[in-house]
Amino acid sequence: MRIKLSDIAKKAGVSVSTVSRTLNRPEMVRESTRNKVLNVINEMGYKPNVNVADKYVEYKNYMSKKPNDTVLTRWGMYTHDKRYKDYTASIVKLIKDDMQINDDQAYYMLYYMVSNNIDDYELAKRDMMVDEKFEIYKRKRKRS
Q1: pLDDT tens, position by position, 58-98
Q2: Among 69, 57, 143, 99, which Cα is nearest to 108's?
Q3: Residues in contact with 127: Cβ distance below 8 Å, sequence separation at least 6, in sequence order
Q4: Tally of structural domains, the chain
């Protein structure tokens, strides 16, 4: 049986809208509520049916409107600022699950796409298969 957002909302004691925001715009949900919803999602084994390419473009468009002068400054904001790091981590998880790669590779993939202003997710996936740095992350993870 497919788990629905309403099932998660009922178990977490929140609205369906709150569950949806937790998944799609986590920065809009209070941290304590977000954690409660995410715990229920993990407990129930919910797997959203998402198009990674569409989610990435949505993420990139949202983050590009944030005021910063360089990609590296933005990247630090994406990964460390409390307002954005959960959103970034959710996109990384989608990439990780889709490509069946480790966290380091998924963050590198996202960084590669953001820093090179790439909108075509499938093209970026093909690029990663020949990228030397991507291979380093793959080897690094195997040794540990």
Answers
A1: 877 777 676 654 455 556 666 776 777 788 888 888 888 88
A2: 99
A3: 112, 118
A4: 2
pLDDT cut 70: percent of the chain above it = 76
109 shares a domain with 69: yes
One domain, residues 124 and 101: yes
Q: What range does the domain containing 35 cover?
A: 5-44
∠ CA 55-3-87 to the nearest 5 degrees? 30
For residue 47, the SS3 value is coil
Regarding whether 18 and 81 lie in a shared domain, the answer is: no
Measured CA to CA, the distance from residue 127 to residue 141 in angstroms comes to: 20
Q: Look at the pTM and tell me if it is higher than 0.85.
A: no
